[in-house]
TrEMBL record:
UniProt source species: Corallincola holothuriorum
Transmembrane intervals: 142-164, 176-200, 261-292, 361-383
GO molecular function annotations of the record: ABC-type oligopeptide transporter activity; ATP binding; ATP hydrolysis activity
Keyword ATP-binding recorded: yes
Name used for this protein in its record: ATP-binding cassette domain-containing protein
Amino acid sequence: MNTQHSDLHQSLVGLFQQLGMYAQANKIATDPQLHFLDTIGFNRQLDRYDIDFSVLPADHKKMMCAIHPFVVIPSDSQAFVARRKDERLEQLAADQTWQPLTNITSMAGAHMVLIEHLPGQRGEQSRFTQELDKRRKWYRPVFWLSLLASITGLTVPLFTMAVYDKVIGGQAPAELPGIAMGAILALAILVVCRIVRAAILCSVSNRMARDLSDMTFSRLLHMPLMVLGRVGISNHIARLRNAERVRMLFSGPGGAGLIDIPFTLIALFTIVLLSGWLVVVPVGMLGLYYLIARGLQKYAQRASPTLSTKHQNSINELTKQLLALKTSGNYSGWIERFIRQTRINCQQNFAYAKRNGLNQAVSHGLSLMTALVTVFTGIFLVLDQSITAGALIASTMLIWRITGPAQLAFASLPKMAMLKSASQQFDNFMKVKTENNELRLEIPDSSGPPSLKFQHVTLRFSATQEPVLSSIDFEICPGEVAVVIGPNQAGKSTLLQAALGVIEPQSGFITINDRNLTQYDPTNFRHWAGYAPAQPDLFPGTLADNLRISRPEATEEELQQALLEAGAATLLDTLGGSLNQDLFEQGYSTLTAIEGSYISLARALLKRSPLLLLDEPIANQNPRARRQFVHTLEQLKGRHTVLFSSHDPELIKHADKVLVLDKGCLVYAGPQPQSQPVQEA
Ligand SMILES: Nc1ncnc2c1ncn2[C@@H]1O[C@H](COP(=O)(O)OP(=O)(O)OP(=O)(O)O)[C@@H](O)[C@H]1O
């Protein structure tokens, strides 16, 4: 399943057509980025359009249950679309006709992508439950293994009883080897069952955690920037950790304890067989155990730490503001706050741990007490000769098989509450609208420079804030170079980001080539447009790695060329002309912010995009860099549509059109005034 083929592309188009999603099929058919798909890219497209699917080894029985058309991916031949039609299977031939699918038995190693729900057909079932349901095939093996382990777990008590009553009481030592062999065999089965079950639980929970993490991460990437910005980094981290919680609960001892709980009925039933009404004692004690454990758990929960999130937020804040902190030279406020929070956090954790410790000790004591009460009650039954001494010993031993899982399950109750909240959080998160929820199927036209138009665009970051852009109207013609100027905080960066579609205005339209920006597929559009932010983001790796983020296939010459066009000759000199030098040492960038800004500009230029949006290029006003960039701007004219922001009068002079922003309002939009240079408002 690791192919990268054009047949996956064709199958994907065919599948969407067969599912009746024609607009999506057309988009995939015409998108050059999707012409060579691997299986991951294939799955990602299904995810993107909110289609639920499962990738499974090709299996005739499962194909016969398919509701929707599906895709079969053989290991050694071309992928194809198939469907179940009444009692037979059909395959979509190249001439778009359905032909009988006959050679299924020869498909060793083939996989199939089964479509489970189309968008909007998912019903009320939560995404988390759906993910659990996808692992349904493992429920049965886990059930049988647990049952077998529970039955063979009766061996030791029954063995002890047999030895006591038959071998010792019945003076029959000859029976011992047979009983011992049986016990050893049963114990071996028990151990194997436990090992296999633990491996299954571990694998299923790991896969589930992996899928939840992937879905969360992909959702985060597809959420609108405004929503992401509002939520904050610690929330994103918490979301990604949810998956880890799920993994720990299922694969940990608590998970096994929970699964074993229903099987304790077998031990209870055996006690009934061996000792009759003596079973009332462990059942009664279990009830008491439950009541006390619940009470203690509530008592422990009341002390659960409340400061951890605040403490984590302070640490996040601290790491973000390291430079400001260092330059201020005033650490005392921070240190005091940190120490105060650490102390409170520590006290809260101590109180919580103390109550949990009490909880565990009482649970342990209660399970010992259950055994003890059973022995004391049982003695009267033995003296009364209602049961044998061996049966009493076996019943007491069986009680451990009941209290053990019960203790584990009770200890896991807080984790169950955690799982419930994790699943709710996950479900709510999956309901958040992403940029892909709407049909955005247009692909930008690369044949020439586009026009860019703002019509009555108003944008605010929150309902309580004044608009950052107020009713903006302007047009940049194809091939024009326009500059947006204005004082700090006038809204220049916001205007450029709105033109890139990463933030959406509340009213008005932005059009590219007379098509509303909201009709373009967001990922495709941003892949197509060149954007250089004012604040550069550098990633761990070499200069070449950092540049190739925008065009992975770029040659070394193209990288050098883009750097020179961005005016980065001095940066190249600093790095000794090498593109392959690591920009990070022990996790810290070796470049200054100014040097970094050349890289973000070079990244945008490297794309050779017909549309370039550049936020304060050459903000440092280095004369050599500026001269080079002016030359680049002149070269771009007519062949690319460029919108850049600047405070630099030298650069501003070279634009064909000037937009002047002041407090979010466009106060001038037109050609360079001839008589007097444009002054920043
Ligand atoms: N994510 C955001 N959330 C809330 N407010 C924001 C956000 N981004 C920008 N703003 C606000 O929008 C206003 C315009 O900011 P913007 O960065 O667009 O101005 P600018 O003209 O580019 O400024 P500068 O020249 O200093 O870069 C500012 O008041 C800023 O605080």
